[in-house]
Design goal:
Blueprint (H helix, E strand, L loop, with lengths): L11 H13 L3 H7 L5 H20 L8 H24 L5 H8 L2 H12 L6 H18 L10 H23 L5 H23 L8 H24 L5 H8 L2 H11 L6 H16 L5 H6 L12
Length: 306
């Protein structure tokens, strides 16, 4: 008879998504440098096109087996992906990075709501508690200045970015099980690149002069995007959108750790925020017997999709 565990070890997929957040934590500086030499839509266009080529080379002859479901899934995810990146970058021109981080973090509580609405699967009570702790941690990291009540153009753009990011996470889980991870990744990166490129004339963004700076940044982040999107499409075949959102909330923790290793000072609020986020990740995994009994459930091993 198998041993019942109520605090299971992380699965390979969950560890892979944690690795994604570690990589994300180190991208802000590269993106900040790139934005000094080109616009956000052009950069997303070039970055995602490079990433699509990288994954396409990896997929090889598998690209010949594209089906309609993979085209549709990739296009929807790609548009959501590009929209989130472009709107967040555009919003950063009008608001501080801390306020942007706070508003973008709204995708964390939005994901379980979207999961409930579109996937018809209500998150477990402990998942809601984990989401609440992670979001509280993100508020601590953002600082009191991010909580002001003013709501301008940059705020609205960043809020729309958070909605797009939440939609992307749910869409990946919605389509992940019925598609090939490599083919759908190529399609979503290509669709995201094309969408960002088409937004350029609409928004009046011009093509910048060639610079080895933005080209190098796009090449580096394009390779990163290729790796990250393949991992997300593979891992979210068995990890629910809510659990993925809690894991992704750890991104600023890893970014802060990198900064600390580089000599940055971490104030108490940052340490508290990091602790709350880690606590949220751990709490979302708990399934205490007393709670299962209260909910009228048999104590059981946590499933991957809770």
């Amino acid at each position: 008879m198998p041993v019942k565990r109520h605090f299971p070890l992380p699965t390979p997929q969950e560890l892979a998504l944690t690795g994604v957040t570690v990589l994300w934590g180190g991208t802000f500086l590269v993106l900040h440098i790139a934005m000094q030499h080109c616009g956000p839509r052009f950069f997303v266009f070039v970055r995602f096109m490079m990433a699509a080529v990288f994954v396409g080379l990896l997929a090889g002859r598998k690209l010949l087996d594209f089906n309609w479901r993979e085209v549709r899934a990739g296009a929807l995810i790609g548009v959501a992906l590009a929209t989130g990146y472009v709107l967040q970058s555009a919003g950063l021109r009008d608001i501080t990075s801390s306020r942007s981080a706070f508003i973008t973090a709204l995708y964390v509580p939005l994901v379980p709501i979207f999961q409930w609405a579109f996937l018809r699967k209500a998150p477990h009570l402990m998942s809601w508690l984990g989401i609440a702790l992670a979001f509280a941690g993100l508020v601590c990291l953002a600082g009191p200045a991010a909580l002001s009540l003013s709501f301008g153009r940059g705020d609205l753009l960043t809020l729309c970015a958070a909605i797009a990011i939440a939609a992307e996470i749910v869409l990946i889980s919605l389509y992940a099980r019925g598609v090939d991870s490599l083919r759908v990744t190529v399609m979503q990166l290509f669709a995201g690149s094309l969408f960002a490129g088409l937004m350029m004339p609409v928004s009046g963004e011009a093509i910048p002069a060639f610079s080895w700076v933005w080209f190098s940044c796009a090449l580096a982040l394009g390779g990163l995007s290729a790796l990250v999107q393949v991992v997300m499409n593979w891992a979210q075949k068995s990890v629910s959108p809510t659990k993925a959102a809690v894991i992704y909330a750890g991104e600023p923790v890893w970014g802060g750790l990198v900064g600390w290793l580089a000599g940055d000072h971490l104030p108490p609020a940052t340490l508290l925020g990091a602790a709350l986020i880690v606590g949220g990740v751990l709490t979302s995994e708990l399934r205490p017997q007393w709670l299962e009994a209260l909910l009228g459930r048999e104590p059981q091993t946590l499933t991957k999709n809770d």
